């Protein structure tokens, strides 16, 4: 009897957990007998046949912050080395999260296990030397932005643009007649402070205060805080105490109705762009991490909406500029100009159109299985 194929998938943050869960479903559609073993978060736990560790929920990010979790990360790496040696999976699939997955790639190479990378680390934004590591350790990069395929192939790394997995998850933002939805008479403002606890601690008080200032200027606006799936209600107590509605959803039904988002830089900025939601992007880091990032990052923008557009479509307020006064003023300026917001909606939706069509996870699964 033929042994069913076994894959080890490793993701380390909430967006990787989301895309990893979608990839597991796609792999099982293509090969129902396949066995998926996962390191990730709650969404991958639901889909995997065997869940090894919750890495996504640990919030291990930054340049020096992983040192605080070194004991956990070392133990996890040792466990994965043992898993690769004893269980001999047919392939490893790393999903974004380069800091730890670089280690996983080395373990896979030592075990003679082919490795794939789904959702590329942002080598084009900082530390281009990572491309050489990926060239040596990865059988194929399965990338979600069209420019990434060209970048990797130019460096001699096998790559395939599979499309963006969010296109399978996000509803169509257009009306049945193809028109952009009209604006709400009383503006809906969404606050998206991030999915990690460190992001919440830095961004939620800032956003709550910015919204309070905004509401004093525009009393009719309504505020909603979009909670991350991995964070408990208690993490949003400051927002609840300020009278803001807490929203938990997976279908984006409430998010797509927003007139404006005040949003932490990350996957949520691309989600907003693909929903046609105008936004003000903010991001704050620890002081040390910020200065290290400034020295390494080579792109002029931090939000994917602006990076893909090649220009500043939406305002970005970083570090000291991310304060309640400036955030509230940037939001007020957008809400006060209906024409600008309508134009911005259309421009953001053109970003969505550049990312191909649905089916990214199925194409990625096909590439992996056909290569084994």
Brief description of this entry?
The protein contains 14 helices and 13 strands. It has 372 residues and is α/β, with parallel strands linked by helices.
Tags for this model:
2 domains, 372 residues, seven-stranded parallel beta sheet, 44% helix, Rossmann fold, 16% strand, six-stranded parallel beta sheet, alpha/beta, 13 strands
Structural class: alpha/beta
Q: Can you identify the CATH superfamily of the largest domain?
A: Glycogen Phosphorylase B
Assembly type: single chain
Nearest-integer average pLDDT: 89
User: Radius of gyration, rounded?
Assistant: 21 Å
Task: Please tell me about this protein's structure.
With 372 residues, this protein is an alpha/beta fold. It has two domains: 6-164 and 356-371, Glycogen Phosphorylase B (Rossmann fold), CATH 3.40.50.2000; 188-353, 3-Layer(aba) Sandwich (Rossmann fold). The protein is built from 14 helices and 13 strands. The chain has a seven-stranded parallel beta sheet, with helices on both faces. α8 links the parallel β9 and β10. α1 (14-30) crosses α14 and α9 (267-275) packs across α13 (338-353). The longest helix is centred in the middle third of the chain and has 21 residues, at 197-217. The radius of gyration is 21 Å and the shape is globular. The two termini are 19 Å apart. The model has no long low-confidence stretch (mean pLDDT 89).
Topology readout:
Elements (H helix, E strand, L loop, with lengths): L5 E6 L2 H17 L4 E6 L1 H6 L2 E5 L15 H18 L3 E5 L2 H14 L3 E4 L11 H8 L2 E4 L2 H9 L4 E3 L26 E5 L4 H21 L4 E5 L10 H5 L3 E3 L12 E5 L2 H9 L3 E5 L3 H10 L7 H6 L6 E3 L5 H12 L2 H16 L6 H12 L1
Parallel strand pairs: 1-2, 1-4, 2-3, 4-5, 5-6, 6-7, 8-9, 8-11, 9-10, 11-12, 12-13
Helix pairs in contact: 1-14, 3-4, 7-12, 9-13
